[in-house]
Fold each of these.
Amino acid sequence: MQVNITTTGEEKKTEVSNIQSTLGANFEIVKVLYDQPNRKYHNFGHILYMFDIAKQQGFKLNELQRLAILYHDSIYVTSRKTDISNEIMSIKLAHSHLIKIIPKPALKLVCRMILDTKDHVPGIELSKEIIDLDLWILSEPEIIYEAYRKNIREEYSHLNDEEWKIARKDWLKKMLHRRTLYYTKNIEAVQALAERNLAKELSGYS
């Protein structure tokens, strides 16, 4: 199974326009965060990619899921030395932007979906598609996966090679030891591709 990540500009425009109309000026605040030059992978392209894959795989995202996708990496600091995760900081931003826009029960769901992207384990049903989309890059053909890996390495350029090797190996092992990486239906082939990419990268750090 090969994943085609090409979609039309019109499709992307529709998804972004829908969110932009909901958020108004706050949309530009979020986009500026994603467009920071140090964000080589976790940038706005990552958000567009998730929407692309959702369309290609027939995921029928609702408004709350689209908002969760937009905000889930809105704060992304690789050198953070506190116990407050990027996801918690992203939740705080989402809450401040959405508290007067959507009902509190809906906001609670958005925040939960964002939180579930921290460990990529769904705490609610709505998170399953979000997690799958967030990790879909792991199942891409080798050339795309390698570009992803290089971009992640650049985001952690503050680590020397040995520090990076130790941290990355730990993460790869953690992902490979999971019972499953994906939670939606018919993802066996995607799971196999992701495991192949992860195992190959891990073997390169031996």
Amino acid sequence: MKSTPIQRILAQGHFDGLCLIYSLFNAYKALRSPSEKASDFAYRSSNFWRRVISNTPSLHNFVLGEGSDFGKLRNATDAKVKQAFIATCFEVMTDGSAVSSVVTPSNIESLATMNFTDSVAILCVKEKAEFEEGGMGDHWVAIVGRDDDTAVYLVACSYTNHAYGLNERKDAKTGRYYNTTIEVDRIATSTSYPDNINVIQLVSSS
């Protein structure tokens, strides 16, 4: 009998625009419990989810599918607002645990040489970005690793399963799971929002 594939990457709903929130939880899951079933992780983390959602500004925009619209702000200000929100979400997710989060702004050049051993990255891509299956539109994803042999980023995407089916693979280096890839040189100013790249680390709280 053919076994049912286990889903380990959290998936958003068909209608909502909560990809930013899901990218945060997929990043956290990749760092803390990459092999755990998505459904088990979601059940165990439901309290953190409620607390993050309760702190999400313009929630109606997210739920209506408009995404991470925090109001009309200059690009630099918008990036700072989103970084503060991301940092706050990770503080919520690590509250009371043995680890604390470090959220650091990054850039396209640093991402290409970043050490993913104890870190992941979150960024927002534009409609022009082409993943292995095709485009995703404006979309937040978690980059959980990089394959230097093939020059691709390993991506945990909350919408890939809906659009292209379940095709999760395990990164042998980190033990993290990804469901799509994008070529390193395809992350550029024309295909991403370079001010919205953040590196996430979890460090011991002691």
Amino acid sequence: MSFFEDQILDIIGGTIGSNHLSNIDDAALNDYLMFSARTVIDLLDDTLLNKHTATAATSSSVYLAANKRVVSVTLGGYGCREIPFGLSGQAADSNSIHFATAKSPVYFINKANQVSVKPTGTEADVNYIAYPTLDADGNIAIPNFPDSAEYAVVLGAAIKVLQNVLSNYIHVDEDSELAGTMQVEINGLQAMYQHEMMKFQGAKS
């Protein structure tokens, strides 16, 4: 399998740093690739991601999930139900219908990306997918990620590259003909991307 940079260039043509890609460097390509990977991870179904998760055990029932997507949480062998942060107080109130119990645990994520599990006192397992750090000309695969979804990541990165080129045609070159041609190409890739992502709606494996 070829590096991600080669896969992207196979779609859009050209060479990084030259001709219509003259304002694209390796750092920009890495950013587009990582942004696309993060977007795809956020859109994929939990059931598809579950088999690729890493697990962090936390005895304090609080876990910092920065740069991660939390897929599921278990407590004492029971799956936790995610609740909005606004119901966190009720989860600890025995008089509330949202009161969390050992057999009906819950979790919530606050604005600081901290995962809190109720009830407390028992070790919780947080299953997550880390948003990857990628090198377009050094990686050929995304770790802990469904192989079947990698093409969508490549398409997403290719779209971001061409959107950059389009912006250059409009605001720097002021070439409406090239801009129109580029927009048609972007529209085609976006349709391919949407088709690719539709494959994973409710995917089970």
